[in-house]
Amino acid sequence: MAIVWGTVKDHRGYVDVKSEEGKGTTFDLYFPVPSEAQATT
C-alpha cells in the first residue's frame, strides 16, 4: 500500500478508502486528467 500511495501522490492524485463491516474495503484511486495544453504526444 505504501508503494501505491507514493505513486498516486507523485502523480498528484488521491486515494479514497471506504470500509464497511461485513462487506469489505474499497480503494478508489483518482488521478488528474491533464488539459490539452499540458498533454504531450
Low-confidence stretches: none
Q: What is the global morphology?
A: elongated
Number of domains: 1
Main sheet specs: 2 strands, antiparallel
- Counting DSSP E segments of at least 2 residues, the number of strands comes to 2
Order of helices and strands: HEE
Spatial strand sequence of the major β-sheet = 1-2
Beta-strand portion reads 25-35%
Task: Kindly state the percentage of residues in helix.
Answer: 10-25%
What average pLDDT do the residues reach?
Answer: 90
Number of helices: 1
- Derived from helix and strand composition plus strand pairing, the structural class reads alpha+beta
Cα separation of the termini: 31 Å
Rg to the nearest angstrom?
14 Å
Write a structural description.
This protein is an alpha+beta fold. The chain has one domain (1-41). The protein contains one helix and two strands. The protein has one helix spanning 2-10; strands spanning 14-20, 24-30. The protein has a two-stranded antiparallel ribbon with strand order 1-2. Strand 1 and strand 2 form a beta hairpin. The mean pLDDT is 90.
